[in-house]
Design brief:
With 141 residues, the chain is mainly alpha-helical. It has helices at 5-17, 21-28, 33-46, 65-87, and strands at residues 100-102, 111-113.
């Protein structure tokens, strides 16, 4: 996804923004979470899924599902070919360096590896069987 995301965002927005797509990226951060939300909303709209606050324009494929699909698959094929050329034909061994995140505005000088994580997280603690909870532990009356 590190290699694929920016070309996907570009393929979605370029039909409307053309050469100004890079300016849009610098203003709206297509390579960030806000960019992901723009792309997601446009693709969900194109697929006739429920969307709050629909955009006035359809970006990917200029609103044509077939054109959008073709452009996205072309991006996937192009990126896969590039990765195969640099990292070999087996996609199970393709790797990239982890992105580093820091603290803004430089409050703490340390950086850490970042990961794309789900919005909802849950922590569970599993413990073994406890005494008093089995069927044979006490008489029922």
């Amino acid at each position: 996804m590190n290699a694929l995301w920016n070309p996907i965002a570009d393929a979605v927005m370029r039909p409307v923004f053309g050469d100004e797509t890079s300016a849009l990226d610098s203003m709206r951060g297509l390579d960030s979470l806000s960019g992901e939300s723009y792309v997601d909303k446009d693709l969900r709209t194109l697929l006739n899924r429920r969307v709050q606050g629909k955009f006035n324009l359809r970006y990917c494929g200029l609103g044509s599902l077939d054109a959008c699909r073709a452009s996205l698959w072309a991006v996937v094929d192009q990126v896969a070919a590039g990765l195969a050329a640099t990292q070999g034909q087996d996609p199970t061994v393709w790797r990239s360096a982890a992105r580093l995140s820091g603290f803004t505005p430089g409050l703490i000088p340390d950086t850490f590896r970042s990961t794309n994580r789900p919005t909802f997280q849950q922590v569970l603690e599993l413990v073994g069987p406890r005494s008093g909870h089995g069927d044979d532990d006490e008489e029922r009356g």
